[in-house]
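ligand=magnesium ion
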Amino acid sequence: MNRRVTTTSVPDEFLRRLRNVRLLGLDVDGVMTDGRLYYGPNSAEFKAFHALDGSAMKRLMAAGVPIAIVTGRTSEAVARRASELGVPYLYAGVADKLAALDELAARSGVDVNAMAFVGDDLADLVVFGHVGVAIGVPNAHPDLIHQADYVTSVAGGFGAVREICDLVISARSIRR
Ligand SMILES: [Mg+2]
């Protein structure tokens, strides 16, 4: 557990595909978090993000790959996290994630097939056949695991996003 993934443990073919990724799309619940929603009094809602995911997201964006957060839910915590990290694209309360990615493509100038997307639930499955690289987490619905080009070694909320950001950064610097 917590096996360190290095670029040498990832198939070359997958790294080549990651090298062409121009934008990373992330689901929130189950990907940037472990999927649990903490409810407080009134409308208070809490999520636990991983600091290591955040620093890797910043590194990836600094390396020239923008990030989009695309989530079915709307929460102040996500808006705050996105703003804190300087994530340029946030789609919250999204019913149709493919429609959101099409809109994102128009806004960002990045074709959907040049995007990678990390998801965990059936709402993410609609984009898996359209993005350039479809990525699942080990805690994802089995249908996503089945369709994914890659499944992270660690679960959502525990460094899955860092794993992908680091792999994309490595893929961009490696020639083999
Ligand atoms: Mg999710």
